[in-house]
Design a protein that fits this description.
The protein is mainly α and 280 residues long. It contains 14 helices and four strands. Helix 10 packs across helix 14.
Length: 280
């Protein structure tokens, strides 16, 4: 009986120690007395304020330079602590459109263009002031976000024209049909706030609309219950923003076919009102 040759045991591979890892940084912070992790409660409160202002996790993460999952973990309280560097960059993110966000929400931009239309500035005039085509302006108004350069240009044109009556009577008629608020109805801190609305005076009690409820429904808040008048405002916004029937169905919580029929009826009614206003 022959002996089996002995096979040497495999040598264990030595794993080099990595430098600069989180574990090493954690040990270094403990030795130097610097806190390794900080309480994420103030960061979570700040993220909830950003979400209430209409910013989604992806946009917040892009502005802070972190992964979207990090924002989600802190916002949903899955992570009760976070690295100091992460807390610092997240707290520096601002919901105000003028503070380094790219792209920026177009809600305030859309409201400014509508307000200019209410005082007689048509899309053709506004596009000429911006140095772009009417098609480019309308594409910007239909989108949810726009480049910061375009946003700044529209704000500059709005500040220059909002107190001057424009030459277009047709723009005033269209704004009257869609019930667009003029510049004087907007406060400076409300025009960019999705939860704020214009100041409207002299409305009949039966036609009162909760503008905050309408804006919450527009940004996708499923907990809000709309009245018939508020649903009409959401439909009017959907037509103005070029929404699809699928998107309107999600906001009104109805079927796609029902949303398609609502859009068709609303467009026909608005076209009839515009014809009557022009012929008057």
């Amino acid at each position: 009986m022959t002996e089996r040759p002995s096979v040497p045991a495999p040598r264990r591979r030595s794993i080099p120690k990595l430098r600069g890892t989180r574990c090493e940084r954690w040990r270094l912070r403990q030795l130097t007395g610097i806190p390794a992790l900080v309480d994420a409660t103030p960061v979570r409160a700040h993220l909830l304020r950003l979400r209430a202002a209409g910013l989604v996790d992806r946009v917040i993460a892009e502005a802070a330079g972190v992964d979207p999952s990090t924002v989600w973990l802190i916002r949903t309280a899955r992570s009760m602590k976070c690295w100091p560097e992460v807390a610092r960059v997240l707290l520096e993110v601002s919901a105000h459109p003028s503070v380094g966000l790219a792209p920026r929400p177009t809600l305030g931009l859309r409201r400014r263009v509508q307000a200019l239309s209410a005082v007689g500035w048509s899309h053709h005039h506004i596009a000429a002031e911006l140095g772009i085509t009417v098609h480019a302006l309308r594409c910007t108004l239909r989108s949810d976000r726009c480049p910061p350069q375009r946003w700044d240009a529209v704000v500059e044109v709005y500040e220059r024209l909002c107190m001057r009556p424009g030459p277009s009577d047709k723009a005033r008629q269209i704004a009257r049909v869609y019930r667009w608020a003029p510049p004087l109805a907007w406060d400076e801190d409300a025009i960019d706030n999705p939860h704020a609305g214009p100041a409207r005076a002299g409305r009949d009690r039966r036609s009162l609309v909760d503008d905050i409820a309408v804006q919450r429904a527009i940004i996708g808040d499923e907990s809000v219950t709309l009245t018939r008048a508020e649903r009409r405002d959401v439909v009017a916004h959907a037509i103005d923003a070029g929404w699809t029937s699928t998107r309107l169905a999600e906001r009104l919580r109805c079927s796609t076919d029902a949303a398609d029929q609502i859009l068709v009826r609303a467009r026909n009614a608005q076209n009839a009102q515009i014809v009557l206003a022009v012929s008057a």
